[in-house]
Write a structure and sequence with these properties.
Blueprint: E1 4-9, E2 20-25, E3 33-43, H1 45-52, E4 70-78, E5 90-94, E6 108-112, E7 116-118, H2 125-129, H3 132-145, E8 153-157, H4 162-173, E9 177-181, H5 187-193, E10 197-199, H6 206-213, E11 218-223, H7 227-233, E12 237-245, E13 258-261, H8 268-279, E14 287-291, H9 296-303, E15 311-314
Parallel strand pairs: 8-9, 8-11, 9-10, 11-12, 12-13, 14-15
Antiparallel strand pairs: 1-2, 3-4, 3-6, 3-15, 4-5, 5-7
Helix pairs in contact: 3-4, 6-7
Bound molecules: NADP nicotinamide-adenine-dinucleotide phosphate.
């Protein structure tokens, strides 16, 4: 049994200066849980938002907090009745628990095995660690909430980042036409991922540019950017269309819009689907940078820029 591990922690909410990298106890592996050796941990904007305390009224927490909700790693130990995986199996997970406390920016994490799915075999641990949170977000937004169908057109706002870059691919796999919105420097990247059309929010009114491409409007707007970009895009919604946002919870939106806010939930069955797409070569993760545990604060500063291309990952 592993008793100590290196982890990034914070003992109070605040900025990057609150992060320390230290040695902490590894909790005991309980019934239904496994000990996973973290090979890579994806970094998400929410990790910085939680550290700043923005979600403290919404998600219970216990200090010290180890940040990080994405993991790809190897099963090292199994608790009583945890028998879905063998010791040594490679797995990945969106590891958000009901209480914010034990995250993935550490050498190990203990987690109920129900959160885990087998890691896609054909991609690296770094790439796999970039899938769970953003892949599930894109999946739950496009299909569970957005009901995206083959032949429909989807406009993705903020399409070159973590969620959007997987969203483009999932929408294409479903047979949709994809219009991706990001700055000009990321247009070739969005096209490589499968976007049929791209729009630069810095130089165009997003609604006008969308209507030049799809004169009747789009069937779904998947909003991963919000703000002015979202407001501009609304003029391109077909009358029967849906708007799904992962940022806006209904503020400044006309009540007549068929709108849904999504907050991503762990779902290992959907991770299995994402694994199959990855193994079929239909879901790729662009890891634009990797950091070690000591660079956790730096990684969180980068993700807070809101201009990360693809994913960034911590390798403990
Ligand atoms: N509710 C949920 O469950 C949930 C889940 C995941 C993420 N989120 C939130 O959703 C947002 C996106 O997450 P992410 O991981 O994809 O972030 P990310 O990796 O930082 O990507 C940000 C994306 O937004 C684009 N962008 C920045 N400013 C923009 C603007 N004014 N108009 C249009 N696009 C703009 C960036 O493109 P350029 O670099 O080209 O500007 C990039 O494509 C974050 O705020 C995150 O906290 C919510």
């Amino acid at each position: 049994m592993k008793e100590k591990m290196k982890a990034a922690i914070y003992k109070e909410f605040g900025g990057a200066e609150k992060i320390e990298v230290t040695t902490v106890d590894v909790p005991e592996v309980k019934e239904g849980e496994v000990l996973v050796r973290v090979k890579a941990a994806g970094v998400n904007p929410v990790d910085a938002a939680v550290r700043e305390g923005y979600l403290k009224d919404f998600l219970p927490y216990e200090f010290p907090v180890i940040p990080g909700w994405d993991v790809a790693g190897v099963i090292e130990e199994r608790g009583f009745s945890a028998r879905r995986f063998e010791v040594g199996d490679a797995v990945y997970a969106y590891a958000r628990r009901p209480v914010v406390q034990h995250g993935t920016f550490a050498e190990y994490i203990i987690i109920p095995e129900s959160y885990l799915a087998a890691k896609p075999e054909n991609i690296s641990f770094e790439e796999a660690a970039g899938i769970p949170l953003v892949g599930l977000t894109a999946y739950q937004s496009l299909f569970d909430a957005g009901k995206l169908q083959q032949g429909q057109t989807v406009l993705i706002l903020g399409a070159s980042g973590g969620v959007g870059s997987l969203g483009i691919q999932l929408a294409k796999n479903a047979g949709a036409t994809v219009i991706g919105v990001a700055s000009e420097k990321n247009h070739a990247f969005m096209k490589e991922l499968g976007a049929d059309h791209t729009i630069d929010y810095k130089t165009r009114n997003v609604g006008d540019a969308t209507k030049e491409i799809a004169p009747d409007g789009v069937d779904l707007i998947f909003d991963c950017a919000s703000g002015e970009t979202l407001q501009q895009s609304l003029s391109a919604l077909k009358p029967s269309a849906k708007l799904v946002s992962i940022l806006n919870q209904g503020q400044n939106l006309d009540k007549s819009i068929d709108f849904q806010y999504v907050f991503v939930e762990p779902n290992s069955s959907q991770l299995d689907k994402l694994r199959k797409y990855a193994e079929a070569g239909k879901l790729k993760v662009h890891v634009s940078n990797t950091y070690n545990l000591e660079q956790t604060a730096e990684a969180l500063n980068q993700i807070q820029t809101q201009h990360t291309k693809g994913k960034i990952v911590i390798v403990p």
